[in-house]
């Protein structure tokens, strides 16, 4: 065995031992609260990756789309025929297209009722609250209502919240938080949003 | 209209105008190079979200899994019956489980041949090179080969590269780069990886 191979083997053994230790220590099993926040691309996309994953095992999934309701959406089409998937979208679309605060609040509250129902349903394994952070920021949805629903949900249920500027209180009670930081975005240097990739 | 509603309308109009301007300026259409890097959760998951999205429009997708080949994988199961999806996984699994540099290099090179074929195929809309960054870092795959394949690919083809510590040269030629930064990860405070959520 060459020196390089020996060094590689030692490094990999050390890494494996470290990973094995961490796996052994991670023994608490329950539903989690995941937050995908930050200004970069990949928050909603990562939520849809998780949805696909959960559906792959036959789990029931509920999705509330708080903003992108009127957009064409390939991932929703791809999974639409799945009986285990339930999607509710705010019908006003992007809030800056409507510019009507009362209509937005009413539309938000309507889908929030579906969210609350899903978060009381023990048969639902995963609930995605896509772009919820803006609803709280704009004052369409009181933070206390969100916290109460999160705290009262079934123990085995995982919830994913996405959106920029995640509220401090939500981050504080999350199990896993990833900040998707934009290093570069094609859109900002002239690249048109692409079908099947960006939407 | 209340003051609050007026302020909201003005703010939303300003935001809409800003977004409209950016959309108007973004008129270049072609395949892109996306990089999901960083130490946080969501890189591979965002890639699978994009895969689901592209399949939703009936596009052909090729996936090379450079590390997680032997893992149970809900998203792959969910989409397995899709004739437009082609997945190749490195058969040695996690590299620190094998601790054999020569075997890892050979396994990497075998799937890399599939990657190169996909990146020459004009009918493939999206190619995902999952965890490729480690292959370059470990020296299993020369960076020059990766750059040559990226530069020579069809103009309409999008490539997603995932993995920590993305190589500087790859980042430099990417259109969109997101750094998934770990703010918190349940695994590090005792939460077991969860079926249908983490894998």
Number of helical segments of chain A? 8
Shape of chain A: globular
* DSSP strand count of chain A: 6
DSSP strand content of chain A: 15-25%
Order of helices and strands of chain A: HEHEHEHHEHHEHE
Decide which structural class fits the backbone of chain A.
alpha/beta
Q: Over the alpha carbons, how many angstroms does the gyration radius of chain A reach?
A: 20 Å
Main sheet characteristics of chain A: 6 strands, parallel
Question: Which percent bin holds the helix content of chain A?
Answer: 40-55%
Largest interface: A-B, 87 and 87 residues
Mean pLDDT score of chain A, rounded? Answer: 88
Q: Unreliable stretches of chain A, pLDDT < 50, 5 or more residues?
A: none
Family (chains A, B): Belongs to the Cob(I)alamin adenosyltransferase family.
Keywords (chains A, B): ATP-binding, Cobalamin biosynthesis, Cytoplasm, Nucleotide-binding, Porphyrin biosynthesis, Transferase
InterPro entries (chains A, B): CblAdoTrfase_CobA, P-loop_NTPase
GO molecular function, one term (chains A, B): corrinoid adenosyltransferase activity
Outline:
The structure is a homodimer of 199-residue chains. Chain A has 199 residues and is α/β, with parallel strands linked by helices.
Structural commentary:
Chains A, B: Pathway: Cofactor biosynthesis; adenosylcobalamin biosynthesis; adenosylcobalamin from cob(II)yrinate a,c-diamide: step 2/7. Two copies of one chain form a homodimer. With 199 residues, chain A is of the alpha/beta class. Helices cover 43% and strands 19% of the residues of chain A. The first copy, chain A, is built from eight helices and six strands, in the order αβαβαβααβααβαβ. Chain A has helices spanning 3-25, 43-56, 74-79, 95-98, 101-118, 132-137, 143-151, 168-172, and strands spanning 33-37, 60-65, 85-89, 124-130, 158-162, 176-184. A six-stranded parallel β-sheet of chain A has the order 3-2-4-5-1-6, sandwiched between helices. Chain A is globular, with a radius of gyration of 20 Å. Chains A and B meet through helix 1, strand 1, helix 2, helix 3 and helix 4 of A and helix 1, strand 1, helix 2, helix 3 and helix 4 of B. Strand 6 of chain A pairs antiparallel with strand 6 (176-184) of chain B, so a sheet runs across the interface.
């Amino acid at each position: 065995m060459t020196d390089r191979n020996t060094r590689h083997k030692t490094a990999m053994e050390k890494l494996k031992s470290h990973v094995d230790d961490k796996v052994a220590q991670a023994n608490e099993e329950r539903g989690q609260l995941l937050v995908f926040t930050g200004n970069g691309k990949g928050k909603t996309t990562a939520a849809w990756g998780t949805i696909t994953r959960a559906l792959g095992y036959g789990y029931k999934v509920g999705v509330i789309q708080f903003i992108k309701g009127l957009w064409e959406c390939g991932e929703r089409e791809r999974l639409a025929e799945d009986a285990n998937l339930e999607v509710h979208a705010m019908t006003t679309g992007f809030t800056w297209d409507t510019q009507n605060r009362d209509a937005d609040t009413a539309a938000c509250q309507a889908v929030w009722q579906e969210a609350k129902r899903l978060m009381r349903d023990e048969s639902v394994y995963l609930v995605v609250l896509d772009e919820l952070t803006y609803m709280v920021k704009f004052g369409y949805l009181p933070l206390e209502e969100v916290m109460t629903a999160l705290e009262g949900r079934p123990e085995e249920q995982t919830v994913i919240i996405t959106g920029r500027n995640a509220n401090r209180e939500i981050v504080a009670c999350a199990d896993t938080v990833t900040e998707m930081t934009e290093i570069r975005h094609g859109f900002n240097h002239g690249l048109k949003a692409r079908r099947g990739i960006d939407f």
